Automatic annotation (TrEMBL):
Function according to Swiss-Prot or TrEMBL: Modulates transcription in response to changes in cellular NADH/NAD(+) redox state.
Subcellular location, principal: cytoplasm
Protein's gene: rex_2
Residues covered by the CoA-binding domain: 82-183
Assembly description: Homodimer.
Native source species: Pontiella sulfatireligans
DNA-binding region(s), chain positions: 19-58
Organism lineage: Bacteria, Pseudomonadati, Kiritimatiellota, Kiritimatiellia, Kiritimatiellales
Protein name, UniProt field: Redox-sensing transcriptional repressor Rex
Cellular component terms (Gene Ontology): cytoplasm
Length: 215
């Protein structure tokens, strides 16, 4: 499917597609040649109608009674998410959160490769973290420009998050994954995604509370 023809999907669909991908890759490893929406729905405990709609949006075409050929459906989801080409990313702020993200090997399977990490602390600059030498934040915008880096991951102290975002934008970065609680102000062409563990925790706590009151 060309980018012009590609449909847009809602956020809930976009959030479910990686779950399908993980399951389908596992099924492929187990030797399955086809995947049906019904099986995917059952494995993940989702409504089959929702799964069928999600998979249809990727443009993959199922075969009657068999389902989707495994390679085709995997490729269709990867292309839909833009994960067929891994995108280079810079991470800024190598504290607790930054170190954890740098140590995670799984992002490459999800289309993102952290190619360099930056900090402002003289104690951290020049040290090695998970095999990467930490660079001086001052060098980040020029390097981002030179390497055509698309994604910036922000894991700095909240009070400097906007400065870091500005420096990333100066370097031509177009997608920012913000792990800080700071609401960032960015130009229209920049795509922002905020990650907030506290929000997920709020859902968990509230559900626990409801379960408790049901007893
Ligand atoms: N998204 C979440 O769910 C979540 C969860 C926990 C923490 N956080 C947030 O993540 C951020 C980092 O938390 P942490 O525990 O890793 O903090 P930390 O203090 O361990 O690390 C922050 C790092 O940023 C560096 N830094 C500060 N100013 C900088 C600048 N101008 N340029 C480059 N580097 C700079 C510091 O030297 C330090 O290494 C905080 O904003 C915190 O609120 C988010």
């Amino acid at each position: 499917m060309s980018q012009m023809e590609q449909k847009t999907a809602g956020v809930p669909t976009l959030k479910r597609l990686p779950l399908y991908l993980r399951l389908l890759r596992r099924m492929k490893e187990n030797g399955d040649e086809y995947a049906s929406g019904t099986v995917v729905a059952k494995e993940l405990g989702l409504d089959p109608i929702v799964v069928r709609k999600d998979l249809a949006i990727t443009g993959a075409v199922g075969r009657p009674r068999l389902g989707f050929p495994m390679d085709e459906i995997i490729e269709a989801i990867e292309e839909f998410l833009g994960w067929s080409n891994t995108t280079d990313a810079f991470l800024v702020g190598v504290g607790n959160m930054g170190r954890a993200l740098l140590g995670y090997q799984g992002f490459e399977q999800h289309g993102m490769r952290i190619v360099a990490a930056f900090d402002s602390s003289p104690e951290i600059i020049g040290t090695k973290v998970h095999g990467k030498t930490i660079l001086d934040i001052e060098t980040m915008p020029a390097l981002a420009k030179r390497m055509h880096v698309q994604i910036g991951v922000i894991t700095v102290t909240a009070s400097v998050a906007q400065d870091v975002a500005n420096a990333m934008i100066e370097g031509g970065i177009r997608g920012i994954w913000n792990f800080t609680p700071t609401s960032l102000d960015v130009p229209k062409h920049v795509i922002l995604q905020r990650e907030e563990l506290a929000s997920s925790l709020a859902v968990l706590s509230h559900r626990l509370l409801l379960e408790g009151s049901a007893d």
